[in-house]
Write a structure and sequence with these properties.
This protein is α/β, with parallel strands linked by helices. It is 44% helix and 13% strand. The protein has one domain (5-110, 175-250): Alpha/Beta hydrolase fold, catalytic domain (Rossmann fold, 3-Layer(aba) Sandwich). It contains 10 helices and 6 strands. Helix 8 (208-218) links the parallel strand 5 (195-200) and strand 6 (223-227). The mean pLDDT is 95. Pfam families: Abhydrolase_6.
Length: 254
């Protein structure tokens, strides 16, 4: 029996490595595709001109075509969640599990700039401190502090895993373009497929009470779930909890 297709989409400045701890279990039930987006470390090079989210959506839709997947279960975190919602709008999703998806903001206002400022500052700091990262990240308390903007329990990662996150952050060439985007997620009602918006309780980039509230207004038909005790990238803090959220969605008819 053919396994159902599952597409995993990481957040801005990250890579396919964001899903590392979840992949073995997810591959037992699904045929998994976890690409690294254009302009991100290990992914296709950025094109000419400023990168736009709609272009990343186009790229990802082409990947579905290349795989021969008319539709797939879509899971995305942050930027990846935004892409998943837009692919669903195009009719390419069997289901969507969007983990603290970006794009639920009013461009240029604090609903966007709060999080983009934090990420931009983190990128600049990482670029300066990168030569010392491998040494400093050997210490659990340093890992926790370094990953605090996106995680509650960064110390649970190994030094190697934490260093890869820093390297991905520094190696992303489209960070400034994406963070400065004037794009946003438009209202989506009715839903084209089963959809869950799973928001991190301690999201310091896209706060639950701000961006999560906008998401509930724009996609009123989606199931809304709060992932307790985790930060913006919940796979760092509690990969088992994230896997359960994914399986709850992909188990729905679709």
């Amino acid at each position: 029996m053919t396994k159902p297709p599952l597409l995993l989409l990481h957040g801005v400045t990250m890579s396919t490595r964001a899903w590392g701890e979840l992949l073995p279990a997810l591959r037992l039930r699904h045929e998994v595709l976890a690409p690294t987006l254009r302009g991100h470390r290990g992914g296709p090079p950025a094109g000419r001109g400023p990168a736009r989210v709609r272009e990343l959506v186009d790229d990802t839709e082409r990947l579905l075509d290349e795989k021969g997947w008319e539709t797939a279960h879509l899971v995305g975190n942050s930027l990846g969640g935004w892409i998943a919602v837009e692919l669903a709008r195009r009719g390419r999703a069997r289901s969507v599990c969007a983990l603290s998806p970006a794009g639920f903001w009013e461009p240029g206002t604090a609903t966007q700039t709060h999080g983009t400022t934090i990420l931009g500052r983190a990128a600049r700091l990482a670029a300066v401190t990168r030569p010392l990262a491998a040494v400093g990240l050997a210490v659990p308390v340093v890992r926790r502090a370094a990953l605090h903007p996106i995680a509650d329990r960064g110390e649970r990662l190994s030094r190697t895993a934490a260093t890869e996150i820093v390297n991905d952050l520094v190696g992303c060439t489209v960070t400034a373009d994406i963070l400065a985007s004037t794009e946003q997620i438009a209202p989506l009602d009715p839903l084209p497929c089963p959809m869950t918006l799973a928001w991190s309780e301690h999201d310091r980039i896209l706060p639950l009470g701000v961006n999560g509230a906008i998401a509930r207004q724009r996609i009123p038909g989606a199931r809304f779930e709060v992932l307790t005790g985790v930060g913006h990238v919940p796979m760092i803090d509690d990969p088992l909890r994230v896997r359960r959220a994914i399986e709850a969605v992909t188990g729905l008819p679709g």
